Amino acid sequence: MKLNFPQLSQGDGSDITVLTGIINAGKSTLTTALPEELKRPIVGTGDILREAVAAGTSMGLQAKSYMDNGQLVPDEVIMGILSEALSQHIQNGETSFILDGVPRTIAQAEQMENLGIPVNRVIHITVPVEVAQNRASNRRVCPHCKRTYSLIGEHRPLEDGVCDNCHAELIVRKDDADPQVVATRIKTYMEQTTPLFNHYRTKGVPVITVDNSGTTALTEFIEALNTK
Ligand code: ADP
Asked: Mean of the pLDDT values across residues 160-169?
């Protein structure tokens, strides 16, 4: 795949946050809860892939079986998505982003470095494994606006099964429905994504951990976003 990425450089005001965490740590809940003035474009590879699967594009067809089984989609596909999404934002004059769920492997981080995508900080949202497992079976998502709800805790929809925002019927994500797939996603995260923390630390990039196992840790998340 040919990558078409306009270069960003330190000093042009670009500010890139890598947001990572075990499945169901609450990454999208935190970004949705950000006050308007702190919001910035979010490039979420999982959302982009689910849209491609729903639209039946060739990329979606390529990614579907990996996603359904809880495995990582090949790096080549991910780098193409990332490059295209960032290019579009940059063409619109935006230079600050949150990358939600990418990179997920050292190879992806290295390819980002080769493409000249600077990372200012990594925010690691953490919850215990049992919480991640339990949240999976209780997660509901809006297929339209992508807002995420939980049947347990503080993020229930106002009306059962209906999105507060756009009133679409909430669904269970296919990869949340099967406990075996949930287990595979957790194992994949532990094995392939957690080595990124040391990778970035070694390069002098701040890695900030936010514990999101209790009530939504929005204040801590905002502090982390402001880390230089
Ligand atoms: P979660 O973090 O809950 O697994 P996401 O919505 O971020 O959910 O991702 C869903 C699926 O999309 C992943 O299980 C994986 O198959 C694929 N995916 C998303 N981002 C990446 C990535 N950076 N590298 C490889 N696969 C990815």
From this structure: 95
